[in-house]
Amino acid sequence: MLMLPAVTFSVAADQQVITDDGREVLLRQDGTWKFLSGDRFANTDDGQRVRLKQDGSWAYVGNAPMVAPAQVRTRELEISLRRTVIETHEVKVQKNTRVNSQTVFNVELASSPIARKDVYIDEQDTARVRVTDSKGRKYRVLSLRPAPATLKPGSRMSVAIRVDGSPQWWKNVKSMTVALGPGLFGLKEPVSLRQDVDEMEKKKVDGFE
């Protein structure tokens, strides 16, 4: 029986997948399939993906795919939500005090040494980011920093995603989700990172960036 995992990526109208026993299979749109080669795949303890060739040799092919609430790893890129900070700024308005807030998601990118190309980050990439909370509220993305920037294969970079507003505790907000759309950081498929509000830091600032 052929068993297929959840991790797939699109190839034109067809799909290329890895079976549970590590074999490469092409799923055609017409409902048929075929093995792409006799090679098999395996994951090392340190999260690397290796190709086991029929001639007895092996080679690294990238990261082992993995998905967790605050971390996603594709073959060429690891994306981790390391730290989230809620910044608050108090402004005096006559006899009252108004509190404005912004939330900053600090995301670490790690490119695999065998990645095939650079990852480019542009100021316009804010359009590929969507931030929501567990109550369905949407947050306007203000900036990605640094931008423009380039992530080379085998290197790391920290990216700050800044949004307007912060979770409203009185509405019992439990978590926030950062959805990264295709094209951002070279991603072919959308991914999501989630962090609980209880894990976020709070910081008073004199002003926002």
Labels describing this entry:
Immunoglobulin-like, 2 domains, seven-stranded mixed β-sheet, 209 residues, disordered N terminus, mainly beta
Query: Whole-Å distance between the termini?
Result: 56 Å
Determine the CATH topology of the largest domain: Immunoglobulin-like
SSE pattern, N- to C-terminal: EEEEEEEEEEEEEEEEEEE
CATH architecture of the largest domain: Sandwich
**What is the CATH class name of the largest domain?**
Mainly Beta
Computed structural class: mainly beta
Please estimate the helix content. under 10%
Mean pLDDT: 87
Notes on the protein architecture:
The protein has 209 residues and is mostly beta strands. The chain has two domains: 1-63, no CATH class; 65-209, Immunoglobulin-like. It has no helices and 19 strands. The protein has strands at residues 8-11, 14-18, 23-27, 33-43, 48-52, 58-63, 66-68, 71-73, 77-93, 96-111, 119-121, 129-133, 138-139, 141-145, 149-151, 156-164, 175-180, 191-196, 201-204. Strands 7, 8, 9, 10, 14, 16 and 19 form a seven-stranded mixed beta sheet that branches. Strands 1-2-3-4-5-6 form a six-stranded antiparallel beta sheet, with no helix packed on it. Strand 3 and strand 4 (33-43) form a beta hairpin. The N and C termini lie far apart (56 Å).
